[in-house]
Design a protein that fits this description.
alpha/beta; 10 helices; single chain; 14% strand; 41% helix; six-stranded parallel β-sheet
Length: 270
């Protein structure tokens, strides 16, 4: 069992095979308007605006849910997540999508109960039935302060990883991601951790520019089969390490102990 392990997943293009924002916009026929507005505002603000536009066009929450439930996912990803949980890992999500999209899809896949924490942009359905999407970090009032240069204004995943590290002590982290926003958290991982970048995606390219900046051990993956194979292999490695540490600490007798000084077992009087 890997009870001292936290597996942190990005969501878009990591758990699922596409970007959930683009998927919803494209499937509901709003791609042209999205592309027109994209240069004028941050992505997170744009998605809130797109939900307004879709609502004004008569699109309902039920239609958004139906679209989300059709999102593509590799058939080995769900079994991999369930296996990681069964092996004792704590599972968390750190994503620049939004809570409504992520929870809708996880519930549809039967995975919501496997995740102890979801760090993402808040969202809610207002009294008019419109989905509202807000920033994880309120960048209009202050900056999150990250200087890496790859984090969007509404979320620094590196700060989230630092919070997890501060609250969880010496637990080891396996981080899976694909995007540029996953580069900052990879810089925060320790030598005992593992980074799983998706090969030939932005985070892989950034890491490849200077792998020595990453303290964690790097294990790339390219599709759902490798996602499962690499993840479960790393969990097995951690479990083996934990067993070895337990054996060394509790079962090996120190060489400086005088065996003759250990009290002998007295016979029981019959």
């Amino acid at each position: 069992m890997a009870g001292n392990t936290i597996v942190v997943f990005d969501f878009d293009k990591t758990i699922i095979e596409c970007d959930s924002d683009n998927w919803v916009v494209d499937e509901l026929g709003a791609t042209d308007l999205f592309n027109q507005l994209l240069p004028t505002m941050p992505w997170n603000s744009l998605m809130d605006r797109m939900m307004k536009e879709l609502h004004d066009q008569g699109k309902t929450i039920d239609e958004i849910v139906e679209v989300l439930n059709r999102i593509p996912i590799h058939p080995r990803v769900v079994p991999a997540i369930k296996a990681a949980h069964a092996l004792g890992c704590e599972l968390r999500i750190v994503s620049d999508a939004n809570m409504f999209f992520i929870e809708t899809m996880l519930k549809h896949l039967g995975l919501r109960e496997y995740f102890s924490e979801i760090n993402t942009n808040p969202s809610f359905v207002d009294e008019q039935g419109r989905l509202r999407i807000q920033p994880y970090h309120d960048f209009k009032n202050s900056s999150h302060g990250c200087t890496t240069g790859t984090c969007p204004p509404n979320m620094c995943k590196g700060l989230i990883i630092e919070r997890i590290q501060a609250s969880e002590g010496n637990k080891r982290i396996i981080y899976l991601g694909d995007g540029a926003g996953d580069y900052c958290p990879s810089l925060k991982l320790k030598e005992s951790d593992f980074m799983m970048p998706r090969k030939n995606f932005p985070v892989w390219d950034l890491i490849s520019n200077n792998p020595l900046l990453i303290k964690a051990k790097i294990h790339e993956w390219s599709d759902g089969e490798e996602f499962e194979k690499v993840l479960l292999s790393l969990i097995d490695t951690i479990s083996t390490d934990e067993k070895s540490a337990f054996t060394s600490t509790y079962l090996k007798m120190p060489s400086n102990i005088d065996v003759s000084a250990i009290p002998k077992v007295l016979p029981v009087q019959q």
